[in-house]
């Protein structure tokens, strides 16, 4: 009898010891998110829905299952999809733009307890950017937080420690989650590795805690978008402000610091590959021989009409930009006696190369300096040289030229001006 009592006492001791090693642990709810779009454009839809998810994840009792589901499903469909994602509950939000406000309709179902946690409800909130990160979904998320509590389960101390360790190790290994919003296809640089924004308008990255980060978004047809931010120990969302890149540019300039001119350019590849046309008015009258019974010579100004193509070597957000272009131009005489006609001495010229340097802290408004090597085609270089002499027979007008039939090389073709990029 004594032996049986001892055995029973031993069993009770082991039972008590085992019970002592158990801990009641809180397991976060695994919630799927369904988003229904009423009338938002794709960019705003992604912006609002991801903002909702980031704010929802701030609740320690909730883990959002990925990916977000952008489908309008019935109750059975939402339940099945939630189970596929490994969730135990779901929330559906419907987003509709209304002027400066956004209408948010929402509901939530608790599959774990088989109950309707939040029946259909509707709110109208200010949709401004400042409200987006602070108060837009505050009421919705607060109600979700009130309706859901962590699942309380019996886990051993070893399992609790393993769960805690795994979560901490994941944060230490991956860092803090950031969601970057931008145009699909945008290339993100500046982080440990390059990221591409997906078709839904987001890219997800992980960065070390308590660090300052600087990223740059590159997208065809848009200026590079640069964002700097400080990461603490909470998920962050970054919105790239991507402005359309230049397609058209207009120049006004001085040629040789004496004559005026203007150019118009169109960029086939935004800010990099372009075609340009322009005019330069040489107001100083030059002496030209003419075949006319009434005139032995003619004093007339010149109008050059140019066409060129070029390319840049660095991006448009740089303080200094460099480019080259190549082309040709027609040289026309303008006179009251004979009107407008081709320059009889050198009516065509080749712009062998033009080297251009732009400088400005403002991408849309830039000062530029351009040097060109120009070759005029002529039948008589000496005759052109004679025509270029000034009235006092000085050779100041021919300095910087090389006269070598059939070419006249202009070695001092310099322009300085302002470029307006549209």
Describe what this molecule looks like in 3D.
- With 422 residues, the protein is of the alpha+beta class.
- The protein folds into three domains: 27-153, Rossmann fold, CATH 3.40.50; 176-239, Immunoglobulin-like (Sandwich), CATH 2.60.40.4130; 248-421, Beta Barrel (Porin).
- The protein contains seven helices and 24 strands.
- The longest helix is centred in the first third of the chain and has 19 residues, at 2-20.
- It starts with a helix and ends with a strand.
- Mean pLDDT is 80; it is low at 16-25 and 154-173.
What is the CATH level 1 assignment of the largest domain? Answer: Mainly Beta
The CATH architecture term of the largest domain is Beta Barrel
Strand order of the largest sheet: 15-16-17-18-19-21-22-24
Which runs of at least 5 residues are low in confidence (pLDDT < 50)? 16-25, 154-173
Q: Could you estimate the helical fraction of the residues in percent? A: 10-25%
Instruction: Briefly note the CATH topology name of the largest domain.
Output: Porin
Tally of individual helices? 7
Number of strands: 24
Class based on secondary structure composition and strand pairing: alpha+beta
Number of domains: 3
What is the 3D shape? elongated
Q: Tell me what portion of residues adopts beta-strand conformation.
A: over 45%
Distance between the termini: 101 Å
């Amino acid at each position: 009898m004594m032996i049986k009592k001892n055995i029973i006492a031993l069993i009770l001791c082991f039972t008590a010891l085992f019970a002592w090693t158990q801990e009641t642990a809180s397991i976060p709810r695994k919630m799927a998110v369904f988003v229904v779009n009423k009338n938002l454009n794709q960019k705003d839809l992604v912006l609002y829905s991801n903002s909702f998810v980031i704010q929802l994840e701030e609740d320690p009792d909730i883990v959002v299952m990925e990916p977000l589901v952008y489908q309008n499903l019935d109750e059975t469909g939402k339940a099945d999809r939630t189970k596929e994602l490994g969730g135990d509950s779901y929330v559906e939000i419907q987003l509709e733009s209304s002027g400066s406000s956004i209408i948010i309709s929402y509901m939530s179902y608790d599959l774990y307890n088989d109950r309707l946690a939040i029946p259909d409800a509707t709110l109208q909130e200010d949709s401004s950017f400042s409200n987006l990160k602070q108060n837009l979904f505050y009421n919705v998320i607060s109600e979700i937080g009130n309706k859901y509590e962590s699942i309380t389960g019996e886990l051993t101390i070893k399992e609790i420690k393993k769960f805690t360790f795994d979560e901490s190790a994941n944060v230490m290994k991956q860092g803090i989650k950031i969601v970057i919003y931008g145009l699909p296809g945008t290339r993100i640089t500046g982080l440990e590795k390059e990221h591409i924004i997906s078709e839904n308008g987001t890219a997800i990255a992980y960065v070390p805690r308590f660090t300052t980060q600087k990223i740059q978004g590159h997208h065809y047809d848009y200026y590079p978008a640069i964002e700097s931010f400080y990461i603490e120990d909470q998920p962050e969302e970054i919105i790239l402000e991507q402005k359309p890149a230049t397609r058209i540019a207009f120049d006004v300039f001085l040629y040789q610091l004496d004559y005026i001119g203007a150019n118009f350019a169109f960029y086939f590849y935004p800010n990099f590959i372009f075609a340009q046309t322009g005019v330069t008015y040489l107001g100083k009258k030059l002496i030209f021989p003419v075949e006319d019974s009434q005139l032995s010579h003619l004093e007339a100004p010149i109008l050059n009409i140019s066409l060129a193509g070029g390319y840049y070597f660095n991006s448009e957000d740089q303080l200094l930009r460099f480019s080259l272009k190549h082309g040709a131009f027609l040289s026309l005489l303008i006179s009251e006696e004979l009107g407008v006609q081709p320059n009889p001495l050198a009516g065509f010229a080749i712009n062998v190369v033009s080297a251009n340097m732009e400088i400005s802290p403002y991408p849309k408004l830039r000062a530029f300096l351009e040097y060109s090597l120009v070759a005029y085609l002529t039948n008589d270089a000496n005759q052109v040289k004679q025509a270029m002499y000034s009235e006092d027979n000085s050779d100041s007008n021919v300095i910087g030229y090389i006269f070598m039939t059939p070419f006249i090389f202009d070695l001092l073709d310099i322009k300085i001006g302002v470029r307006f990029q549209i």
